[in-house]
Each structure stands twice: as structure tokens, then as C-alpha cells.
Design goal:
- This protein is an alpha+beta fold.
- Helices cover about 35% and strands about 20% of the residues.
- The strands form 2 sheets. It has a 7-stranded mixed beta sheet with strand order 1-2-3-4-5-7-6, with helices on both faces. Strands 8-9-10-12-11 form a 5-stranded antiparallel beta sheet.
- Helix 8 crosses helix 9.
- The longest helix is centred in the last third of the chain and has 22 residues.
Length: about 325
């Protein structure tokens, strides 16, 4: 099952899913004719705003479920799981996306149909089991509803596309990418190398608490690695290889992990993580969220590392 943003091509899928609920809604609606008023425009708007998510069976292409929401009002505005799908599995994955895109540090609201129908009860029980509490009865578009609220929590929100997709996808455009639009930075103490093509930059205290952790960034904007022309990709990886060789020499690392993420920063870049006999992640992936205490004896030692890397890369360039 693939959970993804809905597109204009999915409107018929979404409408078909909604129609699967018609037998249940028509039993309780005081005026079923109101139920679909403005729904076409609603779907289009949610799709344009990246506020509608589908769960689609990968093999058949069938729509297992959908969820839509409003970031500005911090509420879920549509929820349905096909009776043909695994309800719990589908609902859990849809809600996971919605809770990340909404702000869980504030109350989150949903309205669900008031009914004893098995399918509609399953929806309500699911939300009750996920910390949504009944607050009052309301009527929406001719249908009696239960208003439910999930109280604010203090969970820390991340900065990747999982939490604020519109901001992320905007930064994916060259005219809004910080790497290409921000003015020349004043603090160059972290810069190991910067020329017309690449930017190599150290980090303090450093992700993963790894001495020498740095990034190699192409100055030309690319959102996806596969967008790079073959020649540019080859040149970029050649520069990464050159930096990695110098990094292993200067740090004394056993190995260098090369990682390309771009889940938070949309501009393609590669993280280089030196690995050591005594690092914190034996037989495990690096937890980049861990940065303290710094792996350097002092900030002066960090600046020494930057200086040594500059010197090594310059000498290697001159030797060509």
C-alpha cells in the first residue's frame, strides 16, 4: 500500500471511495442532497494545497482510503476507509500523515457521522483509540455528526517534508532554495572549500557526535539526484570522493559513510560521516539527531580540523 498525495487524476478514485459511504450516510442524513454540495471544488482545493492523502493498493491501484485536512484550522475534514480494505492498517497510516502535517502541539478536531452502522462505528472507535475525545453533537451538510478533539501534546516536530510539505516543496524550486537565494554568508569559519561549483562545509558540534562530519553541496540547484546531467553527476561524485579521501586521512577514521538525504533541505547534498572504533553506533545506522556533547576537545580543535581539511584539499588540487 502506497500512501501519497492526491492529484487531480485521483478525483474519480476519491469520489468513488466517498460513494462507498453513501449507503451509510443516506440512512442518517436529514437532507442527503446537501452531502455532495461543493464536494468537487473541495477536492480540487485540497489537492492544490497538499491537504489530501490517498492510500492506494500498489498492485491493483484500488483506493483503500483517504484523509484530508486543513492546516489553517488544524482539523481533519475528510476521512474514509474502503470496506474492502484493512481498516486498522489503512486508517493508522493515513492518520499518521495527517497528524504530522497538522500541528499536534495544538488541539486537532474532526467531525464523524453519528451512526451505529458497523463501518462508521469502526471509524469512530479508531479515532477514540487514537486520543480523540467526544465534545459535542453538530450537524454538517444535513448530517448529524460527533465533534471529536485530540488534545495538544508537547511532541517535538521535525523539519523534514513529513511535517510541512508545502514549505518543503516551495524550497524545492530554485527561486526559493536557500542554497541559491540566500546572500553570501558572513561566517566562513565552517567553510572548507567554496568555488564556482561546490561548497564543502563542516559542522559544529556535528551530527552523530562524529569528529569531522561535513557536507558536500553542488552550487547548481537539483531537487532529485536523477535530475543531474550525467557529466555533472560524475563530476559531483568525483569531488565527493576527493573530499572523502582527505577526510579519512585527516580524521583517522576507519570508514566514511556517504549519505544523501534531502528530506529536510531540498537541495541535493551529501553528508560524510567518519566512523571510528569507539563511535556510538556499532552495527547500527547513525542517529544524526544526537549532537551533544561535541566530539571535539574544544572549539579550537574543530577550527584546527577545518584548517587541516583546507590545506589537504588545496595540496591535492595543486598536485594534479
Amino acid at each position: 500500500m502506497l500512501v501519497r498525495w492526491a492529484t487531480e487524476q485521483d478525483i474519480s478514485l476519491w469520489m468513488g471511495l466517498s460513494k462507498e459511504y453513501d449507503p451509510y450516510i443516506s440512512e442518517i442524513a436529514t437532507d442527503f442532497g446537501k452531502w455532495y454540495q461543493g464536494f468537487q471544488e473541495y477536492m480540487t482545493r485540497k489537492i492544490e494545497q497538499h491537504e489530501a492523502v490517498l492510500a492506494v493498493d500498489r498492485m491493483s491501484g484500488n483506493c483503500n482510503g483517504a484523509i484530508a485536512f486543513s492546516r489553517s484550522h488544524n482539523r481533519i475534514t475528510f476521512f474514509a476507509v474502503s470496506p474492502k480494505a484493512n481498516h486498522i492498517k489503512t486508517a493508522e497510516r493515513l492518520l499518521c500523515v495527517a497528524l504530522r502535517q497538522l500541528n499536534s502541539n495544538h488541539n486537532i478536531l474532526i467531525n464523524l457521522p453519528e451512526s451505529n452502522n458497523k463501518t462508521l462505528l469502526a471509524d469512530r472507535y479508531f479515532f477514540e483509540n487514537n486520543k480523540f475525545e467526544f465534545t459535542k453533537k453538530v450537524e454538517i451538510d444535513g448530517c448529524p455528526m460527533f465533534e471529536m478533539i485530540r488534545k495538544a501534546d508537547d511532541n517535538k516536530r521535525g523539519k523534514s517534508f513529513h511535517y510541512n510539505y508545502p514549505e518543503f516543496i516551495k524550497a524545492a524550486q530554485q527561486e526559493f532554495c536557500p542554497c541559491t537565494t540566500e546572500p553570501e554568508h558572513e561566517d566562513k569559519s565552517h567553510d572548507i572549500l567554496k568555488n564556482d561549483f561546490y561548497w564543502v562545509r563542516g559542522e559544529y558540534p556535528g551530527q552523530g557526535r562524529l569528529f569531522g562530519k561535513l557536507c558536500v553541496i553542488p552550487l547548481q540547484h537539483y531537487f532529485h539526484y536523477e535530475d543531474m546531467p550525467e557529466a555533472d553527476a560524475a563530476d559531483f561524485m568525483s569531488e565527493v570522493k576527493r573530499v572523502g579521501k582527505a577526510l579519512r586521512k585527516i580524521t583517522g577514521a576507519v570508514k566514511i559513510n556517504y549519505e544523501m538525504h534531502a528530506n529536510t533541505g531540498t537541495h541535493i547534498h551529501i553528508h560524510l560521516f567518519p566512523r571510528y572504533l569507539d563511535d556510538d553506533f556499532p552495527s547500527a545506522p547513525i542517529d544524526y539527531r544526537i549532537t551533544e556533547p561535541a566530539p571535539y576537545e574544544s572549539y579550537d580543535e574543530y577550527l584546527w580540523f577545518i584548517k587541516q581539511m583546507r590545506r589537504e584539499l588545496k595540496q591535492e588540487e595543486m598536485a594534479k
